[in-house]
């Protein structure tokens, strides 16, 4: 079995499953599991949100999740199981947008690996959020630019 | 060569089928694709915001590409506006 | 309803429930939930562990969990829900020893509040772990001293 | 006054009912309880390790106590060896 689970979940077909994430990253040798769950909020920048739509370049996103897991192993060693799943489609308030979980022998690595993974998902993954507001308006969120400059640095817009 | 560019996020609003087909020379780089897409946008997209493209990256299915990179052999690309996942 | 849930769970009566923790710290205004789950490992300091027994001064532990939640509010504001539950009794490998979850509007606070709470539980709560080994031996774990010195600093043994 | 001290963790091994009853003066402090418990332990607990008590704290049901604190009015205390939860 793979030590890492990476998934894009179409909300029309299934929901993100935190229990499955916990189960996946568990191991008899692991004492610490840290999980992050991102949910759709009812308010953003003062506007009443009724839902969001996530657009995603699925295949590149999955390749990116796998790269993040490889980076986790490079940083924390092979005693690591990572679970990275992101929803796509139209989500309502409270729906789960992303679930990241890390299992490791000790808790410090679990926290750090989980945090590293969710930051990478947020800043690097080809995912786009469109917010729908109570007044009928819809807006694509401002985000992080993935432009790779000549000096090799990625920029955050 | 024929290049097909998938559109995501805010770019989806510009084309009903969320893709643009452009003709480029075989030696063209990602930077050339960027210029060609800008020209296409100026002509065909009434509400086009150049700043959106300026902050967007190009990618294959495997990775984000640099400006000097060649076009993927299969001519399949995507333009990625600033991301906002999670 | 209280914004924080603090519990001591006797393993003979019930199990820790991560799903209940996620549910409890959820809120329409919260976009981030971080959860830590501590499980019994099969190996510690190179010895094969078959199980652990947790002893606990229940009432003081619960008072301490409540204090930790109050500290969380002082640090992160009232936009915080915390869930702190610790098991007591005899646990087997893989059994859940502790579940801490934090819900907040944004993820940075969720990570920091969850980490603060689990560190406080580990370093300050009146809980004692006895490890049982494959060779029949049992040993109370070395831990953190709660001695309060004259200068007001707590020491870690 | 009569003080009852609950025993936890490694201290449980020393008394079958996990508690010790000691007689102290009404003005006694936590430090006096510590001394009294050390004396009791030296007499009654064959394998007593003084270092364990030295690293242990005393508490009421509400809080860990300081050495100069008075004994809780109800005479109920606990001795807490170094903790190892989580």
Quickly give the CATH architecture of chain B.
Roll
What is the number of domains of chain A? 1
The CATH class name of chain B reads: Alpha Beta
Distance, first to last CA of chain B: 36 Å
Using only C-alpha atoms, the radius of gyration of chain A works out to 16 Å
The helix content of chain B is 10-25%
Helices and strands in order:
The complex is a heterotetramer, with 2 copies of chain A (157 residues) and 2 copies of chain B (86 residues).
Chain A: E1 4-10, H1 18-25, E2 32-39, E3 43-44, E4 47-56, H2 58-76, E5 81-92, E6 96-104, H3 107-124, E7 127-133, E8 138-140
Parallel strand pairs in A: 1-5
Antiparallel strand pairs in A: 2-6, 3-4, 4-5, 4-7, 5-6, 7-8
Helix pairs in contact in A: 2-3
Chain B: E1 2-7, E2 19-23, H1 30-44, H2 50-54, E3 57-59, E4 64-65, E5 76-80
Summarize the structure.
Chain A is 29% helix and 37% strand. Chain A has 157 residues and is of the alpha+beta class. Helix content of chain B is 23%, strand content 24%.
Q: What would you say this structure looks like, in words?
A:
Chain A is elongated. In chain A, helix 2 (58-76) runs antiparallel to helix 3. Chain A has 157 residues and is α+β, with helices and mostly antiparallel strands. Mean pLDDT of chain A is 93; it is low at 150-157. Chain A has one domain (4-155): Alpha-Beta Complex (Aldehyde Oxidoreductase, domain 3). Chain A is 29% helix and 37% strand. The N and C termini of chain A lie far apart (38 Å). Chain B has one domain: Beta-grasp domain (Ubiquitin-like (UB roll)), CATH 3.10.20. Chain B is built from two helices and five strands, in the order ββααβββ. Chain B is 23% helix and 24% strand. The relative contact order of chain B is 0.27. In chain B, strands 2-1-5-3-4 form a five-stranded mixed sheet, with helices on one face. Chains in contact: A-B, A-C, C-D. Strand 2 of chain A pairs antiparallel with strand 2 (32-39) of chain C.
